[in-house]
Amino acid sequence: MRAFNFSAGPAMLPEAVMRKAQAEFLNWNNTGMSVMEMSHRSKEFMEVAHHMEATLREIMGIPSNYKVLFVHGGASLQFAGVPMNLTEADDVVDYVNTGVWSQKAIKEASRYVNVNEVAKAENSIPAPETWRLSPEAKYLHICQNETITGVEYQSAPISDKPIISDFSSTVLSRPINVSDYGVIYAGAQKNIGPAGLAIVVVREDLIGQARSDTPNLMNWQTYNDNESMFNTPATFSWYLAGLVFDWIKEQGGVDAMGEINQRKSKKLYDLIDASEFFYNEVDPSVRSWMNVTFKLKNTDLDAAFLEESKAAGLLSLKGHKAYGGMRASIYNAMPEEGVDALVQFMKNFEAKYA
Ligand SMILES: *Cc1c(COP(=O)(O)O)cnc(C)c1O
């Protein structure tokens, strides 16, 4: 029996994808091999790779002047990769600080370039009119969805600089306009597939400017020139990501995902807002559709909440230690029934202890 797993990442994968992978695990497409055992240079694996990229381009609506790179090192390596690929050491770059992931990006970038923090907030996104932008900045960096507090941009900010956005915990969760951004990057283990892979969607004119001492495997040009196969990629993660992209397309693409995700998150926020027992601290206009955080007014009941939810098959609801409370990560693969079960559990818990 599968539980509903609310982990922030690695997170649930669609059951249909897991079953397909299981069915073809030992013998992929009558090759007599697992996809894991295949040369990444083989014709068969190249087909997997090309299909995966084509499907991602289709479901995300990626224009032809954007390149799609499949990279190592997770989203975190791009915290350094972004400044190394786009700046020289004495340049200035603008970063909006909306929480822990913004701060990690700022800290890493600061090792390579002069970072100007344009605004800072924890449970909201400061109004863009208040951002202290630097005229000479090479780019503007944002974190599209702060996974720990559950703060999400509902649209792209407006800027005449390239916007670089960390989409790790919201990629493919709703329709976006890729051309609003210069670079979109994301680790796989939330909405794409298993860990071990990250994607960089980059406007082609932003490739080819890396510092001369950039390691080959951090240089976007290297990935672009070698179909992301300068060295051996995480082949099994690529394959599974491809199955997830096919699944999203079958569900009706990101338009359908967006409708479902908005509905799922609204069920939780409506319950929390109506409750005397639970609360959410995030500005309602920027609440995340992917990570719904909530706290119990009586924190003495936190342990009971976690224990009883686990016993009910609702797993990993403990909030991040940097923020506390609870967090329900409800990415694309979390079925709506999982959210319904959590809503019912929370109502029962409140009735029992209120
Ligand atoms: C999970 C996460 C990361 C880190 O991803 P890794 O792939 O583990 O490096 C970065 N940014 C955000 C917003 C995340 O949610």
From TrEMBL:
Subcellular location: Cytoplasm
GO cellular component, one term: cytoplasm
Source organism phylogeny: Bacteria, Pseudomonadati, Pseudomonadota, Gammaproteobacteria, Thiotrichales
Official protein name in the record: Phosphoserine aminotransferase
Catalytic activity of the protein: 4-(phosphooxy)-L-threonine + 2-oxoglutarate = (R)-3-hydroxy-2-oxo-4-phosphooxybutanoate + L-glutamate; O-phospho-L-serine + 2-oxoglutarate = 3-phosphooxypyruvate + L-glutamate
Recorded family membership: Belongs to the class-V pyridoxal-phosphate-dependent aminotransferase family. SerC subfamily.
Subunit description: Homodimer.
Cofactor(s) the protein needs: pyridoxal 5'-phosphate
